[in-house]
Amino acid sequence: MSAPMPAWAAPSQLDTKHPQAKKKKAQAKAAAKPVAKPKAKTAALKAFGTRPDLLAFAAGLASEQGWDEASLQQVQTQLTQAHIHPSVQRLIMPPPAGTAKDWAAYRARFVEPRRLQAGLQFWEQNAASLARAENEYGVPAELIAGLIGVETFYGQITGGFSVLDALATLAFEFPSGRSDRSAFFRSELAEFLKLCRREGFNPAEVKGSYAGAMGWPQFMPGSWNRYAVDFDGDGHIDLIKSQADAIGSVAHYLARHGWQRGLPTHYSLAMPVDTSARARLLGPDIKPTFTAQDLQAAGAQLSEAALEHPPKQLLAVVELQNGEAAPSYWIGTENFYVLTRYNWSSYYAFAVIEMGRSLASMRAAGR
C-alpha cells in the first residue's frame, strides 16, 4: 500500500478514507526496531450504552421511517452496543499545518505499476459493465476505472473499521479542536441504518473507512442511498461485493452531479505574467468562473482545444503545486469540477484522470 495521503488531497469524499496506509507505515517502523517486551493489552472499547441522546435519535428515526416498536427496539439495541472509537476521533482531526503539496509525488502514489496492473485486470473483468456505464451515463470507462483505482486499489483497500462504530462515534462523540461535523455524521448514521434495513445488512458487521465510507467506490451511506444503482440486476445494491454495482454507481453519481457527455476535463494554458491577474484567476480555485474570453482578456494564453471550448461554458484555472519546483497550471472544465464533487481536491481529480488515461493507453498498446 502506498504511503499515507496528505489531507490536502486524500482520496475520499471526506478526505478521511484511508487510515490503513498509516497503520502499515507504523507497522513497518515497528518491525525495524528491536523486539521489546510485550505491553499490556489495549483497553477494550467502551460501548455507548443506553444514553438518552442515542435513544432519542433512534426514536426519532423510527418515527420518521414509520418503523414498528420491534424495529425501534432493534435499532436502539444496535446503537447502545456500538463503541466509542478513540482512533476514529484521532484520524478525523486535521494534520499539522504546513504540509507541502507536491503533485508529482501525489501522482506517483497512484499511477504506479501494481495499481496499474490491478486496473488492467479490473477493466478486463468488467469491460462490459464499464462500456454499458459509459453508454448510459456518458462518463468515460477510463475515468470510472481510474476513480475506483484511486479510491480503493480496486477493492483491496476498503477499510477495516466498523461503520456503525465510526459513524456513532463521529455523530455523538465528535472530537473538539476542529469544526463540529456531528450533525453531518448523525445524518449519515441515519442513512446507514436505513440502508442496512433495506439491503438486509447487519450494521455491526459492515466494515469501511474511519469516516464511514464503504465498498469499492467508498460511498458514504447517504451517497449510497441517493446515487447507487443495481447495475448487475440482481435486485440489490451492493457496493461491497458487486463490481458491476460499483461501476454503475460511480457513473450515476457523476452524471447526477452534472457530467456532460463528450466534454473534456481540462485544457492547457500559459498563465499571465501580471501577478494580480494571476491571483484573480486563481481566486475561485476549482469553481468554474471564467469564460475562455475572460481568460484571454486577463493575459492567459490558451491552447487550441481551449479556444474551441463552448463560449458560454465557464472554466476554472487550477494550480498544482510541485513542492519546491514551479507549480503547474491547467484549465478545468465543468466536468473537472464534477470529478471534484467526489472529492474536493484538484489533486484527486487529476490523479483519477491520469490513472484512467494510463490504463486506456496500456490497453490500447495491448499491455
What's the gist of this structure?
The protein is an alpha+beta fold and 367 residues long. The protein is built from 17 helices and eight strands. Strands 6-5-8-7 form a four-stranded antiparallel sheet. A two-stranded antiparallel sheet has the order 1-2. Strands 3-4 form a two-stranded antiparallel ribbon.
What does this structure look like?
- The protein has about 375 residues and is of the alpha+beta class.
- The protein has helices spanning about 20-30, 50-65, 70-80, 85-90, 105-110, 115-125, 125-135, 140-150, 165-170, 180-200, 220-225, 245-255, 275-280, 290-295, 305, 335-340, 345-365; strands spanning about 45, 85, 160, 205-210, 265-270, 300, 315-320, 325-330.
- Strands 6-5-8-7 form a four-stranded antiparallel beta sheet. Strands 1-2 form a two-stranded antiparallel sheet.
- A hairpin with a 2-residue loop joins strand 7 (about 315-320) and strand 8 (about 325-330).
- Helix 8 (about 140-150) crosses helix 12 (about 245-255).
- It is globular.
- Residues about 1-10 and about 15-40 have low confidence and may be disordered.
